[in-house]
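Quick note —
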Amino acid sequence: MKRNEILRHVVAAGRPLVTKTQAGISAAGELLLYGVIGDWWDDLDAESVVRQAEIAQAGKEELIVRIHSAGGNVLEGLAIYNALKRSDRRVIAYIDGIAASMASAVACGADVVRMPSNALMMLHKPWLRAEGNSDELRDIADQVQILEGSYIDCYAQKGNLTADEIRELISDGKDHWLTAAQCVEMGFADEVLADSIDVAASFKPSQFHNPPAALWDRLVVKPSAARAAQPLENEPMKFKIVASGGGRWAAAIQASLAKKYTTVEAAVAALASLNIDGLDLIVVGESEASDDVIQALGAALGVENPEASRTPTPTPTPAPTQAPADPDSAAQRAVAAERGRVTQLRALGRRYGLHETEVDGFIDRGLAEAEARSETLDIVARRSTSQQPVPGVRVIGGGSPEMNVAMAVALMNRFDPVASPLDDTSKPFAHMTLLEMARAHLSAHGVDTNGMTKQAVATMAMQSTSDFAAILADVANKSLRRGYEAAPRTFTRFCRRVTASDFKPINRAQLDSGGGALRKVGEHGEFKRGKLVDGKESYSLVTYGEINAITRKTLVNDDLEALTRIPMLQGAQVAETESDVVWGLILNNVVMSDSTALFHTAKHGNLGGGVIAEEGLNAMRKAMRTQKKLDGKTPINLAPSFLMVPAALETTAQKFLASIMPSAAGSVNPFANSMELLVEPRLDAASEAAWYGSADPNRIDTIEYCYLEGEEGAYFETRSGFDVDGIEAKVRLDFGAGVIDYRGLYKSSGS
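Predicted structure written out below.
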């Protein structure tokens, strides 16, 4: 049994809704997400959840997921979200109590989300506890920013709000609590259940920044007056508590519960509020708990130890009176200590450049931070001897984070003084060459550089045991990101962004019911079953990249371009690669799963003619409005939201979409300000006359582009070079794109 078993007890109308769970699956075969998302102790890590989802309700067309969670790990949550989105079954999620933080994003992965009227959903910016120097904390902040984008995308794909609107909603850093009705209004939920349920909540308002007291009270178990008034003998407490070591503790606790509470519901709520680690109690059943857990439970309930009278012991010296222990503290301290240990070991590994598998080994072996540090120093020492340093020179690892940051700022200032202004700490390095900076860095770390040649200084600075190479890599990475972000990517406006956890083919299905009006129900109440039809498209992630070198020659020749301009150009190349892939789908008129080209007059109805004028644009609008559902009968009533033109037609399109005060009714431009103009020079190479339209991707899927989870956009990494005298810098892009639905796209030949 799990430590949170008692916390998974939901009471509805005086009856257990969930009475027993095993491996995250209820007795009814439903998948339970009750607890902290990503917590492997409770089998709520992504691997366990995905495995449980395959088992839950196997063979059925629908998968029922029940959620009651305060949130958890973002990466684990994203993996669970993507697994639900990829499921071949129809996923129906019930938010039994609360879906807060990452749990609310996971819920959006379901096809249908249903909430009792008293359930709550909470959105906020992702947050974490972190430690490290200023560089490490900045890196962590950058990583959280990336995660925030993926997190927001979960809501944008499900709800009625755009990603920008959601980002603005949570930009204040507060917790935003939503009722079931509000969730339906925003599109995060699909249905409010008429009957609310009472929940023995496993969360306390103190866990959150601004819990709404009025709403939170709705989650507390409140037995009816009639039921609460029933005498105990008419409704006996059905608890049987068993301690593994025997004794009278269990009986005393059981008697205390029966004395204090008249209903099972009230007792469940009281036990749930304790959150004692390892508490294994089941209503109407037996579960054996350790003596330590039983004693902790007894102490929390104020039960006197019945074992104390059996073995006389010397009277101890009275101890100072202490405040009653927080019943949550034991569990919370254990969880916090473990997570703190893991965080410390991860930070240690990053600082000394350990491989991820080495850090995982520390974690799996249960090493404390001090033990791991000792082994880390041994690893660094072995690597130092293998690098064959310059004779007579002592290499010292580590260093001053402040100096590293100051040098990086000074180098970026030389490249772009406006974007990277100097501060007091970086001014001393402002006019140094790369070689002078390397010499200063080595000297500050105890290396005597007097009499060393330029080549010797450069060689020493590029050793893997020196962190000067990391400074150069940081500058190159910043330049790469700047180039990537500055490059125009027009496709992002009309395409949908997603992430994938692996390189397996990404299959997308468009499901819609037969459509049309509802069919009349006969006098005998016989409902006819609707039919679902689907169309599938598939694409895969592809890896692009190249390796460059930052060598000692870079230092000797003071080649700042190798760290700034060239990486910036590479960043732009990454962005250009993405644009080439996406626009290539349109320009190549790719063949879809129905063996028909994307733009086709007869079969797809999205290829026409006409210039950018009222007649041509009206033909596009009519074609989109009259596109049919997959049943081939029911119109989906789309409207073009984007007008995509080659550079040759930019002025023409601007004039036609401009808002001009007409002198007569017949002069009104019905298309003024009706679409967003996107100018893409790649279209000119194919045709300077052809133009395109696209519907809002929130209305219908058009083109989808995808990154590897956790490595969105340009990814930069370095290592000590084996083939070069310095460090190797790898620029990598894991990216893919595919046309999901032709109905939201239109092409005009322009003639």
